């Protein structure tokens, strides 16, 4: 079919920095944990303030990024989305699964601000569903007149949108976490970080968040935090 | 900064087929010419009907694709968007310009249907702002609960959204074009395919559309089609 080779190699222009060193607990889609602030730190060769000129005119940005934790793994024509209980198989192109032919993610984030740092000009964004240190390949403005389609039909993925757990987070445990990281942690826990097919009340889960390990269990739609400890490096 | 190499090579999973063999006249953003139907034809190794299972549950899809006409060209930290008259320079990450570090495009299209063809299962979509034969690297469902932000601030790009030319398309010329291709052609012409900084009333422009060359001129907000001819191959 092809006469030309239309392969393309993407080099990271930036990395994301946030409180999620592992995938477990990461919001499953962008915007689901709005308090989670991430920093976009440009790679040295892309620390060109000019390239960001007028970006503050936009409230939202698109990030095109790499599912780097699955680089080198095989893709699968069908996947089992956690939101469907992990049982039903759907086509990979009908999902946002990382196990796709080209392991590239797409996330809409809110632009909170821009700051100058020793690492160059950094973008502060909220709502990213992207693991700490993941590579960013492109940043584009969100254009509501072409990108916003509230009337779009969302298949199965929107069905559990409003599902939230009640949170039992003892204050003495919460206070171990710095104030500015508490909001996003609570949102993430309320969103139920467990795989949807786990329903074992006795099971203790461990969530890595910033420099902490947060242990919790869930019963009858209440998430009980049982410990918060500094992680060993 | 990086210990790991997070570069990634994308292989085309599909190509797009439509009536736009060149960039001139191509809608400047997705959704702007809703009548323009494109086909997404999978590359032989991705002709796996399973990979599309349940995709019809979505009304809209994201396409991640390559600006293949600029592959190998240099990117520029600032660009002059045509919508701003081609004079003002803004940062490349505040635009959807193809001259970016990683020349990857993002477009939202409407899923019209799926059909089985000798070239495998083909997706029919409308609203793509993508040149004929461009490589597609990924297809994702549009999830309105995470992707739709009608409240987003659109910077300068939405200012000219409703701008339309009046169209003077003599019926004997229009009828040279097959009926099913007329609607999209009219939309494209009404959208003013000229670079925004061209205002020469006498100038004749040539638009390649399907197998035709459409010549036109513009004066006082009226676009006059002056000829429609079969292109030489």
Structural write-up:
The structure is a homodimer of 233-residue chains. In chain A, the strands form three sheets. Chain A has a six-stranded antiparallel β-barrel with strand order 2-3-8-7-4-9. In chain A, strands 10-13-12-11 form a four-stranded mixed sheet. The first copy, chain A, is globular, with a radius of gyration of 19 Å. The termini of chain A are far apart. The first copy, chain A, has helices at 144-147, 171-174, 179-190; strands spanning 8-10, 14-17, 37-42, 60-66, 78-79, 90-91, 104-117, 120-126, 135-141, 166-168, 205-209, 212-219, 222-230. Chain A is mainly beta and 233 residues long. The model of chain A has no long low-confidence stretch (mean pLDDT 89). At the A-B interface, strand 1, strand 4, strand 6, strand 7 and strand 9 of A face strand 1, strand 4, strand 6, strand 7 and strand 9 of B.
């Amino acid at each position: 079919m092809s006469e030309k080779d239309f392969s393309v190699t993407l080099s990271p222009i930036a990395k994301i920095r946030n409180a999620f060193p592992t995938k477990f607990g990461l919001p499953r889609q962008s915007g689901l944990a709005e308090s989670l602030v991430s920093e976009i730190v440009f790679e040295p060769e892309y620390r060109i303030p000019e390239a960001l000129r007028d970006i503050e005119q936009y409230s939202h940005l698109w990030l095109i990024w790499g599912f780097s934790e699955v680089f080198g793994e095989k893709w699968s024509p069908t996947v089992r989305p956690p939101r469907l209980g992990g049982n039903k198989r759907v086509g990979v192109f009908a999902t946002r699964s990382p196990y796709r032919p080209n392991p590239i993610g797409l996330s809409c984030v809110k632009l909170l601000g821009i700051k100058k740092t020793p690492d160059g000009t950094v973008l502060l964004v909220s709502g990213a569903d992207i693991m700490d240190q993941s590579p960013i390949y492109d940043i584009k403005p969100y254009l509501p007149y072409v990108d916003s389609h509230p009337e779009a039909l969302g298949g199965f993925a929107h069905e559990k949108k409003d599902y939230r757990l009640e949170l039992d987070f003892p204050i003495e445990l919460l206070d171990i976490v710095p104030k500015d990281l508490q909001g996003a942690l609570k949102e993430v826990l309320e969103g139920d970080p467990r795989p949807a097919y786990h329903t074992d009340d006795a099971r203790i889960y461990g969530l890595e968040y910033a420099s902490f390990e947060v242990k919790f269990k869930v019963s009858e739609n209440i998430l009980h935090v049982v410990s918060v400890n500094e992680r060993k490096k």
